[in-house]
């Protein structure tokens, strides 16, 4: 039974990772076409989250081997994933808020540096010890939800102004990401609400991928 759950979890996370990578690639293709340069920032946000997803998949895979990840890795993992989603939400928000402006790409190097710093947290001793995420980390998910909700509302307002169905669907998908973050900010892992959040996450990123690649074609 444990092996079945591991395979199902791995397959789920791989699917989410492919959606993130695909969205990132199509966003960069948008920019290459000469469309809104904000697509670069949008794409980097998804690429950053894809890297975090890859790290998660690697750790999930290792749990099936006799040598389990270290305690430090297991304690830091939820902080890393939540921090990556927070960085992702800031990137998406910035790409929408600064859409059409050339300096929208200026934060990209900063995002990359922060993503690298987040990754170094897995090195034992690089950062001081981390407290239990379940008791002290919910604020990161809550902040991510607030920022993502702001991005969703901006998409909705752009839709009212420009009457583009694409933007209304993107608003719905980002609202789902916001819902996922709010659920995770108030629910412990392995609860019914936690599983609901994972389903919402898959639906949200599936919608975003579909809309981005359809809009490109």
Tell me what you see in this structure.
- With 217 residues, this protein is mostly helical.
- It has one domain (2-216).
- Helices cover 79% and strands 0% of the residues.
- It has eight helices and no strands.
- The chain has helices spanning 2-32, 38-62, 71-97, 108-120, 133-136, 138-162, 165-186, 192-216.
- The longest helix has 31 residues, at 2-32.
- It is globular, with a radius of gyration of 17 Å.
- The protein starts with a helix and ends with a helix.
- The relative contact order is 0.12.
Explain the layout of strands and helices.
Blueprint: H1 2-32, H2 38-62, H3 71-97, H4 108-120, H5 133-136, H6 138-162, H7 165-186, H8 192-216
Entry keywords:
217 residues; mainly alpha; 0% strand; single chain
Summed up:
The protein has 217 residues and is mostly helical. Helix content is 79%, strand content 0%.
Task: Describe the main β-sheet briefly.
Answer: none
Helix content: over 70%
| Count of all domains | 1
- The overall pLDDT, averaged over residues, is 86
Helical stretch count?
8
**Binned strand content:** under 5%
Beta strands, count? 0
Overall SS class: mainly alpha
Low-pLDDT residue spans: none
- Rounded to an integer in angstroms, the radius of gyration calculated over CA atoms is 17 Å
Helix-strand sequence: HHHHHHHH
Say what oligomer this is: single chain
